[in-house]
Amino acid sequence: MTTQQKESSTIFTTVHPDIVKRTSVSSLIYSATMIVVGFGVFLSAFELQDPSSTLSMTLMVIGTIFMLFGIFRLFWKSKEMVYLPTGSSAKESTFFFDTQVMNTLAESINSGKFAMDKPLKMLDSGNVRLDIVMSQDMKFAAAQLFQFVPYTYNPVTEVRYFTEEQAKSMADYLKVCKNN
Predict the structure, then answer these.
(1) Which residue would you say has higher pLDDT here, 50 or 38?
(2) Residue 70, Cβ density class (10 Å: 0-12 exposed, 13-18 middle, ≥19 buried)
């Protein structure tokens, strides 16, 4: 099944009803562990016999860095996107292509059919950008194609949503393109 959104919206600004942001328990545990370890390292600096030594200052700095990084992860990195029907987490990715393949790629995205026998070459950066959101189980994908026009990327296609076999086909196609 393929659905679409209006062209003015982008893949990262639209919300599909089957994609939700949830708090990641593993990320919370990791962040809390970093804060506790940082606090412990910071306090261990005061247990040294010479609190003004280089080692004491180093422990304070390391402890502070751990605590700050843990707090940062707690507030800004503790959410993950989840595809509700399967419970699989979803990740955002961006791929770049040459301008010459833009029409072929746009046709593939609009039709939902990806020609495995004609893989396109991915670039490190380029004038054509493909933004995708893909569930880890490859049962859901959202894609939108952009073209670079001086100073900005403009949408070439609408946001397209793929489920089941079309999503798997798109994931397989992108793997082939990446290895091409």
Answers:
(1) 38
(2) buried
Q: Which residue has the tokens 């996107």?
A: 81
pLDDT at 123 over 60: yes
Which tokens go with 72?
């940062």
Q: DSSP assignment of the chain, as one string? A: -EEE--TTS-TTT---TTEEEEE-HHHHHHHHHHHHHHHHHHHHGGGSS-TTSHHHHHHHHHHHHHHHHHHHHHHHSSEEEEETTTTEEEEEEEEEE-GGGHHHHHHHHHHT---TTSPPPPBSS-SEEEEEEEETTSSEEEEEEEEEETTEEEESS--EEEEHHHHHHHHHHHHHHHH-
Query: Which residues face 134 on adjacent strands?
Result: 91, 141
Q: What's the pLDDT tens digit per position in 131-149? A: 999 999 999 999 999 999 8
Q: Is the pLDDT of residue 3 over 60?
A: no
